[in-house]
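Q: Got a minute? One more chain.
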Amino acid sequence: MSLTKYLLIFATSVSLVLTAEPLTLKQIMADPDWIARSPESPQWSLQDDSIVFQQKMEGHSSRQYFKANLANNNIEQISDKDLALLESVNGSFNSDRSAYLYINNGSLLLKEVATNKVQPLYVTSNKISNSQFLNDGRIAFQEGNRLLVIDSANYSLSELAHFKTEKLPEKWSEPKDFLGAQQRRLFDYIREQQDEKQHRESLNEQRAEASFYALNQPIYLGEKLKIETLSLAPSGKYTLVVLSKESPSGKSDNMPRFVTDDGYVKNDSVRPLVGTEHPESLSFVFVDLLSGEQFPLSLDHLPGIKNDPLEKLKRATAKAKGEEFKPQTENRAVYVHAWFNSGIAWSDDGSRLALRIFSADNKDRWLAEVDLNKKQFITLDRLSNKAWVNDWTFNQFGWMSDNQTFYYLSEESGYSHLYLKSKGKARQLTKGTFEVSDLTPTRDGKWIYFKANKTHPGQYDVYRVNTKTSVIESITELGGQVDYVLSNDESKVAFLHSSLTRPNELFWKSLTGNNTIHQLTQTVTEAFKSINWQAPQIVGVPSSHTDKLIYSKIYLPKGFNSNRAEKYPAVMFVHGAGYLQNAHFGWSGYFREYMFHNLLTEQGYVVIDMDYRASKGYGSDWRTAIYQQMGTPELEDYLDGKQYLVKNFNVDGNSVGIYGGSYGGFMTFMALFKAPGEFAAGASLRPVTDWSSYNHGYTSNILNTPEVDPEAYNRSSPIEFAEGLSDHLLIAHGMVDDNVFFKDSVRLVQRLIELEKTRYFELAVYPIEPHGFREPSSWLDEYTRIYLLFEKHLKRK
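A: Always. Here it is, folded:
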């Protein structure tokens, strides 16, 4: 199928008639298939002559797979048969890169690169993971708590190790007490059973000693434990085991579902609340597979592990409660992110092992090497932050191909940058007021590719840095947003790119020839392209509280006149997530809001969308400005933004509305409750009303826990300021929201009722909707209410 035919079929599959009619809410909130079914998750074929990508199926959430041939731009859908053999991006090459090992749908597969021939190695209904080539050519993988190996010469399967979270069974010994000795002396049956057990134990010991590996028997790690991850060295000689407590503390909350298949209310058990889980430290065991010895790895060598950065706060809280303060006597609890072993990195030769370890109190991140001889941690880097370290992103690390040089990202300078460390002090490769992410070192160790907003906080491109000279080269100069994948032979790069008015498309570029960028897909529909979408201005709004600008998107009404006698109404949008960037030059994840803002400009509104303090893209100080005071710096930024609109865009200060979802809903509450009279109306969608009801991982980073830092929760939770409501408020919430629970809004409504705020608020509920709405009818209902709210209260009659 040619690219032209592919695009024709795609375009005609979207059943939406082109129209010159004005933009409508119904069109905006329709299934987004009408906009584009953009390419997703590109990966290179093993031969690097084509790129495989995913695309949403029309009318379904499932994905289809396509292959784009670089030679002729031909795009073909991958058949179900071929899909079953499609290589996974989490696979690995052998030493000469002639074969690729991967797992697909429960099957361990080996693909020859030259012929594309696939050899099934192991097929099972059980979950298998962590496939890898060992340095001696064998193939290893994990099934449950077993490590299995396949001989690459004859494909014979054997067990390398079997781990059990049980106590080591006690060996039989001659009874020492009177009763036990009497039992053995008097009863032949007892004596024969004991002798047989002793014989079996002796036989098993002899067989184990005769084996190359001493672990034909299970490795007993101890009881009441759970294996979080098993990480096997490429040498096949060692395994790192990460363990947690079997039953973590914490009480789960409940969420009722009212619209069900059988008509009966169903009650779901959902996450615990912040601070209700006592932090239990992970433990680490290093296992020598040749000797069978286990070496527990102590945390004692991590600098600062015994210090409690919250001691002063805990002491003050205890005093306020009239309680006795009990200082910390043990090491701080720690955790690692072990998904796909992302928190663990072996060097290629298996001689070096590093872990990324976070303190449970969120103040420290250690990058630590395991000394394979002394069996103890050696700190490679410690990152501390009085607020919280960034455990969400900018944490990539690993070993270069020389097996000696360690690379990692750190916010030590205030921005995420790339560092190299071999001996002595680490060397910083990138510097400046920009953020580096998505590292890809080359196999020769000469370059490290990365993504960064080097030229503008909202403009991302691909770069590479020379590891010897620290010279940075641009790979793309497209602006907007970009995500890239380096080809297997490192001669080409594929990337997804989007702009302010267009979602992602797939491109590729040669790194050895000319600089031509080739576009492979054009998935935006003619229906969407036929509309004259406004690309918002991105401006830096001056702040009265910091010397940095607050980057923001501004949408202006058609025919905007800064000297018009009648001033304009304005709407301020608050993006969600807190730590997220939306004032960038790429396609927004808030695409419905983008279109809604276009509609608002058609109706005469000025719209501003701000990257308030706490947003991503502007360094660690911007991120942590909300520590212990969520809602305070952000509101200051929005009040500055309002004054900016009044001063520069002829906006009526008495006709400004505000809205947002999730964190944006929380901020809408804070705006209306803490700054009465500043905003004529606000819409709070799926909002947090009390941070003590939110999850632990996100909230404890910023506010610590309610027991340790109750005042941070009091000053940051909208429900504490509800008496300030004197403007018009819409609350909208899905009833099966397992992220921000519906009960958040229910509790606030009860508070508003008791405060006799009846005339100021209304509640819209969505019985079948989770945190992110799914049904177009729900989106339409919600945004119709928002639009009517603004039309009623922001426009002068």
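A: The chain has a mean pLDDT of 93.
Q: Perfect, thanks.
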